[in-house]
Amino acid sequence: MCNNFCVLLGKKFSCDQCPARFENYDDLIKHAREVHHHAIVRCQDCGKEFIHEKDRLHHVRQEHVKKTRFRENKNLYRHDV
């Protein structure tokens, strides 16, 4: 997941505040925290870290809400034979 804090270039994550580039998003988050003292938000369900709250919210909707809805409604998808 990339936002206005980084630019996805191939498989590289690039900081938009300096020339630093990273192989993965977790390294970019570590850089943002340590170098630019950017506040990091954490998912309360799984602990994944994000640079922006909007990215955490998107993650929760995509990863946790969909799974919860499926579990709550799994009997709707079952076919009785």
From TrEMBL:
Domain C2H2-type per the UniProt entry, residue ranges: 13-36, 41-69
Pfam family, one: zf-C2H2_4
SUPFAM superfamilies referenced in this protein's UniProt entry, alphabetically: beta-beta-alpha zinc fingers
Family matches, as InterPro entries: Znf_C2H2_sf, Znf_C2H2_type
Name of this protein: C2H2 type zinc finger protein
UniProt source species: Candidatus Nitrososphaera evergladensis SR1
Gene3D superfamilies hit by this protein: Classic Zinc Finger
